[in-house]
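Consider a typical record:
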Amino acid sequence: MLNGKVYVVTSPELINAVNRSSRVLAFNPFIAQLGKRITGHDEITSQIVQHNLNGDNEPGYVTEIHDNTIAALADPTSIQNITSTMLDGIQDHLDQLIQEEEAELFAWIRHAVTRCSTTAIYGPENPLVRDQGRLDESFWYFDASLNRLILDILPSLFAPKGHTARAKLGAAFQEYFRQYSPGQSQSSAMTLRRHLINTKYNITNWNAGRLEVGVLLGILANIIPTMFYMIIHIFSDEQLLQRIRTELEASAIARSSDGSTQTLKVMSMRAYCHLLHATFKEVLRHHALGSSVRYVREDILLDGKYFLKKGMVVQMPMGVIHRNRHAWGNDATSFRPERFLADGSEEGGKNVRQTNTAHAFRPFGGGTSLCPGRHVATLETMALAALMVLRFDVRPADGGDWVIPEPRQESMATNVFPPEKDVRVKVAGRAGAEGVKWSFSMG
């Protein structure tokens, strides 16, 4: 699969045709090809994973996991529970951040969100928090080594940190699932469903632990760089910062009678803070640079014009698609959140609500492989940015101008790459909001 011809698709119209041909142009075969190399599960489990991979005749392991993950992460109550738990933890990290006054921004986000987002998924027994050996850091060693692990050439020698980190993570989740009790666990619905499906297919706890290492990639690898770029884009643009603060204060804040307590209403923020949401989408358009891939299961004439041969690969590079001038206008390379607003068109640019750009915006993939966690990722990223914008003034620690760092491609499984270098910032309580106690509600 990885040695044949690659068809590169950059036209939004042809991407739509790819999405419509999901039975023939499929993502799941890559799970069979790369899954074992990524997680290190055993051969028996690999056979279970590969059986009826595309669900052509009856459900298979992969299709059941996929469908149940979608169901768990599309449920509004589940989304709110996950987000609420994550923000409960983040509040403590924000309180500590203001006391420390300075921080490496990406490192702070990575540490805080890794712990809080995984606790929201796995509950109080989250191995990444309970482990005293800083297992949260092990995940990032694994992520940084993923390309070498995928090569699967003596990983203990050529990717020793990643190989060791994967083993530590797998062992920790093996123990987690050994003690897991469906009737008593406070984990998310997604984790409960995965456990029940693993049990149904006789996946051992050792292999369940290894498979869960792959799940962590979906939970963490893209959202944390996205949060970093979201925050840095807002604070580096004074006009955008003030407009977002005004929007939040008008539409998503509840105040006590004396003004001493202010509460971010998270669902109101999602519904009414259109500029904040547009900024999130523009961050993704600007920084989601990975590629969507499909395997050609049988010969097909794509869109009635282009012959694709069985056994080859289709690649859809986001970095090219997200800068398509036909879709996004002459300012496609510029950072302009207003393009996602109903009244945001400007000369030389395009308003996406007035043009057909649905297939030119692919940070979450598309078609049948559309990211099931996109709603949670959107809500968590917007809420963290909102809390920081409302509570803090943030500026470069050296007193100079903001510089948005270039991305560093570490993993072929990541769409939003981490920054090439971190940005050290000075954090202070927001001027004019001294003494205010901040909280959140899911209202």
In short: Confidence is low (pLDDT under 50) at residues 345-349. The chain is about 50% helix and 10% strand. The CA atoms of residues 5 and 184 lie 50 Å apart.
